Amino acid sequence: MGSDILNIFVSALIVVRRFFLLIFYPYKTMRKISLESDYYQIGIILFLVFIFFKFAYFLRDKPYPATLIFFVFLTHFFFTIFFFYLFFGLNRKKMRLTSLLFTFSYALLPSLIWFSSTSLLYILVPPPRTFSLMGRAFSIFFITFSLAIAAWKIILVYLALRFSTKQSFYRIIFILVLYLIWFIPYSLFLYYLKLFRIPFI
Fold it and tell me: How far apart are CA 160 and CA 57, in angstroms?
């Protein structure tokens, strides 16, 4: 029991450290993550996502409980991993499913940061927001911040696929396009059901 707690603590420190390393050294860090085997790290990241859903549930009127939203997230998270594993793994028998699992878990960090930040801003600067100088400055800041997070997310997803599958740039882009073909209608379906305005992935 004591050793498990220590292992979880050490894994948590590794997650925090790699969070910052993924900002400044994404290429080198994601390559190391693709070789990882410490499943506590995945558990910690998914636990943080669960905590976010619990936190966000109390901010707005939610027709669905946070636990259900979390399980919906887990469904499309693991489906995404299996999607890429099946498409890339057909020609690469040595490709490790665990590599995709670890890299895509860490690729959740930009999403976690963005969704958590927007939730906090919802509390600190609640709508409606004015067209004053401060309001415009906030809008510019938020758009810039969102674009930076989106760029970071795209980089991490690409690197996750690059190091997990060892495929070329063009093949990765091609498979990503195929992924978006089903993911975009799926996102609209979730929006229609009021499960997610923006899918957490």
Answer: 30
